[in-house]
Amino acid sequence: MEYSNYLYLAVLLFCVGAATVLLRRNAIIVFMGIELMLNAANLAFVTFSRMHGDITGQVVAFFVMTVAAAEVVVGLAIIVSIYRSRRTVSVDDVSLLKN
Amino acid sequence: MINAAWLLIAIPLASAALLLLAGRKADTWGHWLGVFASAASFILGAGLLLALLGRDAGDRVHDVHLFDWITAGDLVLHAGLRVDPLSVTFVLLVTFVGSLIHLYSVAYMSHDTDRRRFFAYLNLFVAAMLILVLADSYLLLFVGWEGVGLASYLLIGFWNHVPTYATAAKKAFIMNRVADVGMIVALGALFSVFGALDFASIETSAATGGASEGMMTLIGLMLLVAACGKSAQFPLQAWLGDAMAGPTPVSALIHAATMVTAGVYLIVRSGPIYDQAPMALLAVAIIGAITLLFGAIVGCAKDDIKKALAASTMSQIGYMMLAAGLGPIGYAFAIFHLITHGFFKAGMFLGAGSVMHGMNDDVDMRRFGGLSRYMKITWITFGFGWLAILGVPPFSGFWSKDKIIEAAFSAGHGEGWQPWVFGMVALFGAGLTAFYMSRLFFMTFHGKARWNSTGADGQPERHPHESPVLMVVPMVVLAAGSAFLGLILAAGGRFATWLEPSTGHAEHHDPVLPIPVIIAATLIVVAVGVVIAWRQYVLAQVPAIPPVGSPLTRAARRDLYQDDVNEAVFMRPGQYATRALVYADKKALDNSITGAAGLLGLLGLGLRRLQNGYVRTYAAFILIGLVALLVAAAVLWN
Amino acid sequence: MTSPAEAVLFWCLAPLMVLASLGLLFARKAVHATMSVVFVMICLAVLYIANEAPFLGIAQVVVYTGAIMMLFLFVIMLVGVDASDSLVETIRGQRYLGWMIGVGLTIVLLTFLARVSFDQGIGHSATVDQNPTAIARTLLGNYVFPLELVGILLVTAALAALTMTHQRRLHPRVSQKDLADARVAHGRRLTPLPSPGVFAGRNAMDVPALDPDGNPVESSVSRVLRARGQDQVAFVDPDIVQLTEAGESAPATWNRVNANTESAPEAAAPNDSVDKSTPEEQEK
Fold first, then answer.
1. Average pLDDT estimate for A39-68
2. How does DSSP assign B442-490, residue by residue?
């Protein structure tokens, strides 16, 4: 099996994540879509790291993971505080920025 | 010892930072910290002097490497200190006079709520001045140069709640910036010619003829412009009189003894450059001669005691510039006069401060008179300074000023028009000096009192008294310096020999007149000046309202119209130009830009529809962009 | 090239992962979506280990499955399990656009991948030492400054979450007495809600109680169970069935037992809270 199969898998996961962001309205699920995209990118990093025999790819994936953790904490906090004030987790209800 | 020279700068700098940062907590002890920092620098400086005296004359120039400062491509600049007789002389002058003036300020500023800030600025000044004189390259010198400018600005405007004082500070700052342009151009030219900015390499390259004479003349003239601004020389002299707005100790330290002499230091330090540029050197001498007369004439007409002293400072620095402009033969005399002047002029400024202290901060000499009975010590110490600046033997000024007059009579190798012109100017200047200083001295301390203790007869009510001991002690020390320093240093040409490692050896040329004739002529001229002043201000009644006077007097009172010239030549055209620019800006530029902005606004109105506020739509836009980019990349790839 | 065993592992896991990830797109309930993502994360960890990245594999389990996804679950709990998507699209054309872009992006990316020819690949074994050691070398060597930055970022994020979810008390604290007063004033129910199963044949959590008339009491079942649609039809006593079969006139309400429970539970569920200003949880 070629290493590149992992890349195909990464692409598929990434696209599913992207589609989730576009299609779902529950902020939590949208957020999980983003996490999926990050993980797909990580898989690609790890695969490339192995292809080139270069450990840096794994280090970058590690950084992605940590940054994602920080992002999740803040993002979920935002979702919770939005839910508290507006009783909704739908991303479409938070659209005051228009016009 | 020499390697610890950086401590000289670090101590006052740290003290200044501490005083500024410590806040009101330091109000009770801050001034003593300031005095201590300055005194510590003086002790270190004395140590440097001993270290240098312990070496042979040929081994007295030391460059101390501190750290690599700027490294950019081929340009490698080190920050380093040059410890040599010239810089150590300056260090001692700055720290010794500085320490005395710190001490004086403790008492003088005791009623000021911001005394701590004042001492912080004074320490900042001392640190910057030491950087200036100890720097081993023009660039580090420039750092100190700007540092003293900043400290001068802060101290002139120390009482900046008075708008005129704040304006005076700004005036000094701006005129110094004009001069700094000269400095920056000189720096650039030096770097382009020699590829280095440190004194050592420039000295070697200049001596071996590394640059054309035209280039050297340009550098010399630009350095002269810089020196003119800092030392208040013609035509950048206008700020010095207004700078008297600062507290009197500041006037004594910065605007009499040390900072304003930095220009002379720069010229002397740049000796190797001026050696290759005789035209620039001549320009220095001419500027010095003009300022000498200019300051003396202004000084004859001023009624404000501090402004009269400022005019005198200008004139005395003119002497130093004239001496420096005579080439190697004059460098040592310029520095010598600078040192003695630093003592007697600082002493006189402190005396003026003491007089103001006793006279309710009045500065108008027409309301003084007969103070010698009430302020004995001030009178005697001021008198020593007066005799010194007159050049009466054996006071300090005699040894330094007479040397300059002699050197002026031997200008241009003693041939052509130069010795006669410069010599006569210097001689005439000595007479004028005698007149205006005697006028100042007599108007203040002698004659009939033009005040009384009751305020009767329309005269001001004053209760003159001697100043506290902290103010008196520095005045006494400086008076002692005014009296004996010249004799001590001049004996056997000791000072010139001491400076030789820095200034180079000068061939001696005979003046066009025999030396005894010159000395006699000088003393006669001085005596004439004193006698005229005696007649006019002691024997005759001094009117409380200044008489109209001759056109020359009126001009001198207005500083020979220096401000009017500056305003007419620079300020007004500048204002017209800016107004025209503002008009053009409003009509042409603004309209075109508002038009463009209007167009963009219309565009924005259209684009606004895209912003529906839904995050998912924005995400869709991002992904559409990504897909489009990928497709474009794929197409281009083929 | 990979080993045959790895190929088997990949071909087993990859289709499952894609399927599970599709759960994100199609699951109606957030919890289901979360569980499918958890599955994807665990499989990814396995693939990392297969990819000669054991350290990342472990980190994936610990960080993603253990921490991040559990955090998601907690938030879903906080927000309420009934907060599911309605399927009605609010933005005109968004669904169409979303599918277009999703599919388009997949096609473009896959085409790209297919057109690139990759080298054989050398793997890590030939070039570097043990995996965690090598990562530690790189991470604490070349990347030590970014590592510090990330540390700062994490601390900042924790503080940010604390500040953002911190609630300032805007109204005076509501005591039990205030609640009771409010109920009396508004004519609400004063007694506790009935517990489930009372008078019914069973005492289970998910069976509604029957009132004396034999009607099931909706509010006796936990709101969460009703939101999930997990409440049961009230168990009807065999005696009553016998009565019915014997032609005795059972009370008319008995027949409504089935009719009521067949209707969608969600419609009635959220509206039985006592007072808007009081936390609903206190009632159940």
1. 91
2. HHHHSSS-S-BSS-GGGPPB----PPPHHHHHHHHHHHHHHHHHHHHHH
